[in-house]
């Protein structure tokens, strides 16, 4: 069968069929499979600035940006040059490098309450390590997370997670033991009463609360004003830690991540990924020295990695952070505002009920009649997701690549110049009509 939107002889379709024979679902990360929007995923061969090109040679304006890392645009010449220069000196040493210290210093300088940083290779490792560290430090077993928040795919964190699990309508994952699942308390987002009640009931056993700095894996659902600060207060009152997950928001929504927009409170551990690796596999966790020194080799909580602090990834991350100046964040904000309001206007012109959800320069849309902005996973799940499917494919056919699920944020880059933005705007009227007709 030919999938939606694919023609006979389509190179992507051939690639997808070939991939499906040797890779589960033909993809190495589930959301790439277009399960929620249908059709044939595009197999990509190159990307530059705001554009990405598929195996068929079709160019798209990209609003996925590798799911966040590419704030400067794809293949920024200075980042590529830094990686090439580093590669010529060796790909991996399995030993410390001066550049790792430089990257740690650059991160710590942006969030002054952090004193030490450990580099890992993925966001999953960063959050997994943060909760092990929280449990090791407090000597307590339980973890609080919020429904619809995604923190990577480690066992404790898959309960009612967003991202690909929202897309596939999975409540969790097979292969996670009940004993492990029972150690994670899942609460509704933006519900401080629920947090307080959980602490009143289980306080002495709760090691930490983990929260996305602004939820962006169920679509964008920002925290209520003061929510993150109140989480810190409640956790600390009961002797627990607050783990702020900035894997997606860190160094993307501001120089100091979402905390930089929010401030006024002090999380105990912060996790980073995506932008901090500049598009290479690198992530990190940071905290005050007393806590971070609980990690091996100074402390009893074990964590390690053959490729941790990989020189190429460090070069990409450090160069990206160095180039991410005020002008970059200003441009990200302008593009986010221009694109999100243009999408909203196009949908309104066709009578498609929706709301724009924003957290800094991250945005997404919920479809349907919402009297107020949805604040929880339960609310966003009631939306008319089929309208996004129609919008997504109309945009893709017109040469604009959106995230292949309504439960994901849209990602702009500072390389989205007026020409790229115009191409998005031109595609919108027809795509909004398709959403209306769905
Ligand atoms: N935390 C958050 C908030 C994320 O958005 C993600 C990935 N989208 C992760 C953790 C996991 O990161 P990774 O995919 O690099 O393991």
Automatic annotation (TrEMBL):
<dbReference type="GO" id="GO:0042286">
    <property type="term" value="F:glutamate-1-semialdehyde 2,1-aminomutase activity"/>
</dbReference>
<comment type="similarity">
    <text>Belongs to the class-III pyridoxal-phosphate-dependent aminotransferase family. HemL subfamily.</text>
</comment>
<keyword id="KW-0413">Isomerase</keyword>
<comment type="subunit">
    <text>Homodimer.</text>
</comment>
<dbReference type="InterPro" id="IPR004639">
    <property type="entry name" value="4pyrrol_synth_GluAld_NH2Trfase"/>
</dbReference>
<dbReference type="InterPro" id="IPR015422">
    <property type="entry name" value="PyrdxlP-dep_Trfase_small"/>
</dbReference>
<dbReference type="InterPro" id="IPR005814">
    <property type="entry name" value="Aminotrans_3"/>
</dbReference>
<feature type="modified residue" description="N6-(pyridoxal phosphate)lysine">
    <location>
        <position position="274"/>
    </location>
</feature>
<comment type="pathway">
    <text>Porphyrin-containing compound metabolism; protoporphyrin-IX biosynthesis; 5-aminolevulinate from L-glutamyl-tRNA(Glu): step 2/2.</text>
</comment>
<protein>
    <recommendedName>
        <fullName>Glutamate-1-semialdehyde 2,1-aminomutase</fullName>
        <ecNumber>5.4.3.8</ecNumber>
    </recommendedName>
</protein>
<dbReference type="InterPro" id="IPR049704">
    <property type="entry name" value="Aminotrans_3_PPA_site"/>
</dbReference>
<dbReference type="Pfam" id="PF00202">
    <property type="entry name" value="Aminotran_3"/>
</dbReference>
<keyword id="KW-0663">Pyridoxal phosphate</keyword>
<keyword id="KW-0627">Porphyrin biosynthesis</keyword>
<keyword id="KW-0963">Cytoplasm</keyword>
<dbReference type="InterPro" id="IPR015421">
    <property type="entry name" value="PyrdxlP-dep_Trfase_major"/>
</dbReference>
<dbReference type="InterPro" id="IPR015424">
    <property type="entry name" value="PyrdxlP-dep_Trfase"/>
</dbReference>
């Amino acid at each position: 069968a030919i999938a939606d939107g694919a023609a006979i002889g389509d190179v992507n379709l051939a690639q997808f069929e070939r991939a499906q024979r040797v890779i589960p679902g033909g993809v190495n990360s589930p959301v790439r499979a277009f399960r929620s929007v249908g059709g044939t995923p595009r197999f990509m061969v190159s990307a530059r600035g705001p554009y990405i090109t598929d195996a068929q040679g079709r160019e798209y304006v990209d609003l996925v940006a590798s799911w966040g890392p590419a704030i400067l645009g794809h293949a920024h010449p200075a980042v590529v040059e830094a990686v090439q220069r580093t590669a010529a000196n060796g790909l991996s040493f399995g030993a410390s490098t001066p550049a790792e210290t430089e990257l740690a210093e650059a991160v710590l300088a942006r969030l002054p309450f952090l004193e030490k940083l450990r580099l890992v290779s993925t966001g999953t490792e960063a959050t997994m390590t943060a909760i092990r560290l929280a449990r090791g430090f407090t000597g307590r077993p339980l973890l609080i997370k919020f429904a619809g928040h995604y923190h990577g795919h480690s066992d404790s964190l898959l309960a009612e997670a967003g991202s690909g699990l929202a897309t596939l309508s999975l409540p969790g994952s097979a292969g996670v033991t009940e004993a492990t699942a029972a150690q994670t308390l899942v609460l509704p987002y933006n519900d401080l009463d629920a947090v307080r009640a959980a602490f009143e009931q289980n306080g002495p056993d709760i090691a930490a609360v983990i929260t996305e700095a602004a939820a962006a894996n169920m679509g964008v659902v920002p925290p209520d004003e003061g929510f993150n600060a109140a989480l810190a207060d409640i956790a600390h009152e009961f002797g627990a830690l607050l783990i702020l997950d900035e894997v997606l928001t860190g160094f993307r929504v501001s120089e100091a991540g979402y905390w930089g927009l929010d401030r006024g409170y002090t999380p105990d551990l912060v996790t980073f990924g995506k932008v901090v690796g500049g598009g290479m596999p690198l992530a990190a966790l940071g905290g005050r020295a007393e806590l971070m020194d609980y990690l091996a080799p100074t402390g009893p909580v074990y964590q390690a990695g053959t490729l941790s602090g990989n020189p190429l990834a460090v070069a990409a991350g450090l160069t990206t952070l160095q180039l991410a100046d005020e002008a970059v964040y200003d441009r990200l904000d302008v593009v986010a505002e221009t694109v999100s309001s243009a999408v909203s206007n196009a949908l309104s012109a066709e009578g498609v009920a929706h709301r724009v959800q924003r957290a800094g320069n991250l945005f997404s849309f919920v479809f349907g009649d919402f009297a107020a902005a949805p604040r929880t996973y339960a609310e966003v799940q009631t939306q008319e997701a089929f309208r996004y499917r129609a919008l997504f494919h109309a945009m893709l056919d017109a040469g604009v690549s959106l995230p292949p699920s309504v439960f994901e944020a849209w990602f702009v880059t500072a390389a989205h110049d007026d020409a790229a933005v115009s191409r998005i705007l031109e595609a919108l009227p027809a795509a909004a009509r398709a959403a209306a007709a769905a």
